[in-house]
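Hi F.,

I've been meaning to write this up properly since the lab meeting, where we talked about keeping a consistent format for the predictions we share between groups. The idea is simple: the sequence comes first, exactly as it goes in, then the structure tokens exactly as they come out, then a line or two of notes. No screenshots and no reformatting. I'm using this chain as the first example so we have something concrete to point to.
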Amino acid sequence: MAISGNTPFNKVTGGNLVLMRHGQTAWALNSQYTGRSNIPLTEIGKDQAAKAKPFLKGYNFWDNLDSQVWVSPLKRAQQTAQIAIGNTYKTVDNLQEWDYGKLEGHFVPDINQLLGHTFNIWQEGVDIDVSSLPPVPQFFDQDGNEVKPAQLPGEKISDVAKRAQQVIDEVSPLLAEGKDILLVAHAHILRVLTCVYLGLDPAHGQNLVLDTASVSVLGVNSGNPALFKWNQVL
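Output, unedited:
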């Protein structure tokens, strides 16, 4: 699903909340749960981030990058921002991806086979016993450094939604001043944030497709939270 166009909206009613997903990673390509694991971009991912630049033109966050561009601390988001925007931005912990807990690094098809059905993280959560699955394969970045899966307890979708709400609460005064805000982050956190912004149940994020290095825009229409553009990619 893609809603296209390059003209910014909401210049009267407020700023635009622009969402950008990071570029391709090896784990995303291989259908591995990445979450908080610090996997870098592939060369294709870097190229995707560069190609997304036309979708970011015309917004006023270029005037104050250090306060109007917010980026997840995870490497793939940082690299995406650096390629698409430059090295000036604000790092925001609440934009980190959903903590998948013990699912980190495991392959989606393996989890489906384990459960005997197509796994739906939006409905089932991350508290899945994966002890019988093969260990996560070793992964090395382009510099030969091993990147290990994150070892964290996992989050409920309600926890992710709380983080998303905190981000929205923090950017809302800036949007009200007519400032455009760019968030560079990850597929699940951005889909949850979109649902929270629109007043929908966070689980409705399962109905939103968000491709790597895509750009989307939220705003206000006739006083109501609105989705103006979604999943723009070249």
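Notes:
The CA atoms of residues 113 and 130 lie 11 Å apart.
Residues 157-176 form the longest helix (20 residues).

If this format works for you, I'll send the rest the same way.

G.
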